[in-house]
Amino acid sequence: VSLYSDTIAPIVVDAVLAVANKTMSSVDLNDIKLIKKLDGTVEDTELVEGVVFDKRISHTAGGLDRMENPKIALIQFCLSPPKTDMDNSVVISDFAQMDRAIKEERQYILSMVKKIKKSGCNVLLVQKSILRDAINDLAQHFLAKMKIIVVKNVERDD
Fold it and tell me: How far is it, in rounded angstroms, from Cα 56 to Cα 151?
């Protein structure tokens, strides 16, 4: 590390000064996070002020891939229609019932997406679900149309 002190020292000083509480003359070092990435060199080291996500943006339904001054929301529920209980089943016997079921599914998802949009969110982080897909293609389509960036499968630790 001493070989690269000319590179690392200014970055460390800038990081400490950025999080220092000037009124109390103290620094909480937990406010600084060092992230090591593979295939990088010490010369690639940089200070990022803000939040860095190493998750990929979902491009399933098109949409944006960059947002200035984002309003970020984190959800811990699935953006998909509710499933039936294990003991129950749904029997659809004709096309009219199928159309009605699809229409209700679309309305359900659209109402959830509209609530997210109404909150002012333009970047949506969807926490990973162990039970099923946290977000389906229809929800991603509606979110893309409303210019909301989606980052799927965000771990609790992130």
Answer: 6
